[in-house]
Amino acid sequence: MGVFLFGGGGGGGSSPSVTIATVTNKNGLDPIALSADVTDGVAPYTYAWSAIGPDSATGSFDDATSATPTFTPDVNGYWVIKLTVTDANLLTGSDTEDYRAGYPPPPVELVPAPVVSEPNAAYKVRLFEVSTNMDNTLIVESWS
Questions:
Q1: Is residue 88 part of a domain?
Q2: How far apart are CA 8 and CA 15, in angstroms?
Q3: pLDDT tens digits, one per residue of 83-125
Q4: Residue 27 falls within a domain, yes or no?
Q5: Does residue 53 contact residue 101 with C-beta atoms inside 8 Å?
Q6: CATH number at residue 85
Q7: What is d(CA 41, CA 66) in angstroms, rounded to the nearest whole number?
Q8: Which of 27, 71, 94, 133 is deepest in the core (most CB within 10 A)?
Q9: What is the pLDDT of residues 37-80, one digit of tens each?
């Protein structure tokens, strides 16, 4: 996903195409390794990372101007991580990545299928998902 912004530098050319290439270690409030993938534009590039979390929490980057920073969320919830890259001609490009901190996926229980002794016997299956929305309100959904 990419959002392209056009800046005010001289020299023409196309703006950088930016992708947050790596988001790893998505486990609770552990640090997240990030990396940028930049094409187009004119090197050298400058990087500006930011993050917005629940209730405007900001977390922390080890180096918000690096192409490969580490981000540590400070509260559980949904985060939006943003990267803006500026090239030598002052043209910019940006990308965002959604991240969910502190909520591991619910466990999945596999149950052996029943032995059907009657032809045309019907069984009902019900699935549940428990999650929270951006303001940490609990959401329970089920399907049959």
A1: yes
A2: 11
A3: 999 999 999 999 998 887 876 555 666 666 565 556 665 655 5
A4: yes
A5: yes
A6: 2.60.40.10
A7: 18
A8: 71
A9: 999 999 999 999 999 888 878 889 999 999 999 999 888 888 88
The total number of residues written for the chain in this structure: 144
Contacts of 79 (CB under 8 A, 6+ apart): 51, 52, 53, 54, 59, 73, 98, 99, 100, 101
Domain count for the chain: 1
Query: Does residue 55 fall inside a structural domain?
Result: yes
pTM of the model: 0.63
Instruction: Answer yes or no: are the C-beta atoms of 32 and 70 closer than 8 Å.
Output: yes
CB atoms within 10 A of CB 70: 16
Can you give the residue range of the structural domain that contains 73? 3-101
